[in-house]
Each structure stands twice: as structure tokens, then as C-alpha cells.
Design goal:
By secondary structure, this protein is α/β, with parallel strands linked by helices. Helix content is 41%, strand content 20%. The protein has 2 domains: 268 residues, Dihydropteroate synthase-like (TIM Barrel, Alpha-Beta Barrel), CATH 3.20.20; 93 residues, Sulfite Reductase Hemoprotein, domain 1, CATH 3.30.413.10. The strands form 4 sheets. An 8-stranded parallel β-sheet has the order 8-7-6-5-4-3-11-9. The two termini are 31 Å apart.
Length: 383
């Protein structure tokens, strides 16, 4: 007898090391394409395209940029049949799993699966009848495709709003469980759940409550977080709390910004929490009256130039002789500035001194040289 999808994943998980600064909630594992989510696997970074999916060229171009940034799973909106049909060609040109985001139209869910989607994001209650949902679930089971049940605070059912009198964590959890039970009643268990709000405390409380009731993996984030700066701050606060309590198996940063920046922010959060070793750990001082170079200009230029490096490197850009030499010498690549010049350190040793006008080029050159010989470390899982 052929082994079940869950058993196959369990065997793969036996080879994954367990190491993390935080205790992760125990969840079952599912697989989206080749990516394992939950069960102690490394936290997965997702994003969503902001193009019309039917515009295959633009969508593939955006996904390729996301792949370079480190995105591991991509979601695309499927509001029309043309979007579902486009998935087949998009899949031929990308290297990461693709999830189809479908609402209301069950035929679009079927078409998305038939055209190669690796997963679905749906709200089972919007398909209108259990018969229609059963067809979607049956095809998903046949193709070994997981389903994400998503609840947002802005789209709660009217009866739950009436029952609780307002949008609340309890109402969000009841909504999620209602949808999950529908899938379970159809014998489907390859499920992932998200229950997001733009309010941090409500989101945290909802995931806490849900964790007491199910062992499905969680997709986490703060929804509609806002523009780049404001949204990054809110997302960092919310995800730090969720990750510290082990309540996330895969994450997305929801920003009104290019999706590549969502991925960059996600990895920065994971890295600063000790949950990822991918990419640059960039350190720079705030500058003060002692600085004798244009430090902000230098730091901004260097950070922009090296933002796509995936190697595990610590880079320090420091503006004066007080803390500069110490921080710079402890980094993989460091810069300590003096009067209109900079000293570049590599592994604690001075490699060159350059005038201010040459600092950016010289420093970036050294970072890329070291980065090419330093691959990103394999992510550690957590249990």
C-alpha cells in the first residue's frame, strides 16, 4: 500500500536537526511543493505578488526578484479564470512553490490545482455549498495539495460579529475552527491556518487561543501593516511576540511596498531573533558630532548595494574612533572612520585605508569578495 503524504513528510523530518533560541509549538508537518512547513521545520518566508497573475511576464519577473531575495513560497491572486490558467506557464519559469489565493469561485480553485498550483488559500465558507467544496477538497487530496484556511479581522462572518459584539480574538478563532471542521468533515487534514489582524495584541491573543485547540501549522503575520517604515515596525513587534512563543511556522510581512522588501524585512526579523542565519547582519552607528565623514550617506549606499547577498556575514559601518575600531574589528567586514578616511577590517585585521570618496566602493568590493566564499548557512529547525 502506498504510504500516506503525512507519513512521507514525517520520514523527511527525521533528518532535520532541532535547534532554536525559542521553544516552538508542536505542530504537524505539511508540504507545499518541496517546502516543508511545520513539524519543527525551519520557519518559511513567504510573500505575495502584486501583479495581475494573468500578466505572466510581469508576474514571473516579480517572482524571480523575490527568489533572489530569499522568498521560499509565493502566493498569487486568482480573481479570474485567466489568472488560474496562467499558473501553468508561471510554474514553468519559477523555482519556488506557488499558492493560489482563491475566494468565492470554487471553479477557480479547481482550475488553479489543474494548472499546477502547489497549494490553495481559501475560505471554505465562501464557496456556497458543501458539494462544491467537496470537489475542491477531493482534487487537492488527489494532488497532495495543502489548503490554508485564512481568517482576517476585516472579513468575519456576520453571525460571529453579532455573537461577540465586535471583532475579537475569540471570534477570529471560532471562525477559523468553523472552517477547519468543514475540511475535517470531508476527511481532509493537510491544513495550514492563519488568523491575522492589523492589531498586534488581538493577533497574538488569537494565535494563543488557537494553539490550544489544534496542531496544524500556523502562517503568521500582522495583516495590512502599512507602508515600509511603519509596517516594518508593526510587523517586527507583532512577529517578535509570536515567534518568541513559538506560534509561527511560516511568515509573511504585509507591506504597502515592493514584495522584495517584505522578504528582506522578514529575514531581518528572523536573523535578529536568532532564527535565521541568512543574509547580512548590518551594524552601523547613529553618528554624532565626533564623526568626520558623511556616515549616513556611506551606510545607506553600502546597505543598498549589499542587500541581496545571502551569505551569513556581519558588516559594521562605524563613524568615529570611540566604538568604531572595536565594532569593526569584531565583524566579518568592518569600517572604522576617522578624518575624511576609513579603515577597513576583515576578521579583525586591517586590510586597507582609503579616503572618504573611495570608502563605499572599497568596502562593497571586500564584502562581495568574502560573501562569494561564504554561502548562507542552512537554516536550523526548531521544536
Amino acid at each position: 500500500m502506498e504510504e500516506s503524504f503525512s507519513i512521507l513528510i514525517s520520514k523527511e523530518m527525521e533528518d532535520i536537526k532541532i535547534e532554536t533560541p525559542f521553544a516552538r509549538r508542536k505542530s504537524k508537518a505539511i508540504r507545499v511543493g518541496k517546502v516543508i512547513i511545520g513539524g519543527g521545520a525551519p520557519i518559511v518566508v513567504q510573500s505575495m505578488t502584486k501583479t495581475r497573475t494573468s500578466d505572466i511576464t510581469a508576474t514571473v519577473r516579480q517572482i524571480k526578484r523575490l527568489e533572489k531575495a530569499g522568498c521560499q513560497v509565493i502566493r498569487v491572486a486568482v480573481p479570474e479564470r485567466e489568472d488560474a490558467l496562467a499558473i501553468r506557464e508561471i510554474k514553468k519559469r519559477i523555482d519556488i512553490p506557488l499558492i493560489a489565493d482563491v475566494h468565492f469561485n470554487w471553479r477557480l480553485a479547481l482550475a488553479s490545482i489543474e494548472n499546477g498550483a502547489d497549494g490553495l488559500r481559501i475560505n471554505p465558507g465562501t464557496f456556497g455549498s458543501k458539494v462544491r467544496l467537496k470537489e475542491v477538497v477531493s482534487l487537492a487530496r488527489e494532488r497532495n495539495i495543502p489548503i490554508r484556511v485564512g481568517v482576517n479581522s476585516g472579513s468575519l462572518e456576520k453571525d460571529l460579529l453579532k455573537k461577540y459584539g465586535q471583532v475579537s480574538a475569540e471570534a477570529m478563532v471560532e471562525s477559523a475552527l468553523r472552517q477547519v471542521r468543514v475540511l475535517e468533515d470531508l476527511g481532509f487534514f493537510e491544513i495550514k491556518i492563519s488568523i491575522k489582524a492589523s492589531d498586534i495584541q488581538r493577533t497574538l491573543q488569537a494565535y494563543r487561543l488557537l494553539a490550544e485547540k489544534v496542531d496544524y501549522p500556523f502562517h503568521a503575520g500582522v495583516t495590512e501593516a502599512g507602508p515600509l517604515l511603519r509596517g516594518s515596525i508593526k510587523s517586527a513587534l507583532g512577529l517578535a511576540l509570536l515567534l518568541q512563543e513559538g506560534l509561527a511556522d511560516t511568515i509573511r510581512i504585509s507591506l504597502t511596498a515592493p514584495p522584495e522588501q517584505e522578504v528582506e524585512v522578514a529575514y531581518q526579523i528572523l536573523r535578529d531573533l536568532g532564527l535565521s542565519q541568512q543574509g547580512i547582519n548590518f551594524i552601523s552607528c547613529p553618528s554624532c558630532g565626533r564623526s568626520e565623514v558623511s556616515l549616513r550617506k556611506i551606510a545607506t549606499a553600502v546597505e543598498k548595494r549589499i542587500s541581496r547577498i545571502k551569505a551569513n556575514l556581519t558588516v559594521a559601518v562605524m563613524g568615529c574612533p570611540v566604538n568604531g575600531p572595536g565594532e569593526a574589528s569584531e565583524a566579518d567586514i568592518g569600517l572604522a572612520c576617522g578624518r575624511r578616511m576609513g579603515v577597513i577590517f576583515k576578521k579583525g585585521k586591517v586590510v586597507k585605508k582609503v579616503p572618504e570618496s573611495e570608502i563605499v566602493e572599497a568596502l562593497v568590493e571586500e564584502i562581495f569578495r568574502l560573501g562569494e566564499n561564504r554561502p548562507a548557512k542552512e537554516e536550523k529547525s526548531s521544536g
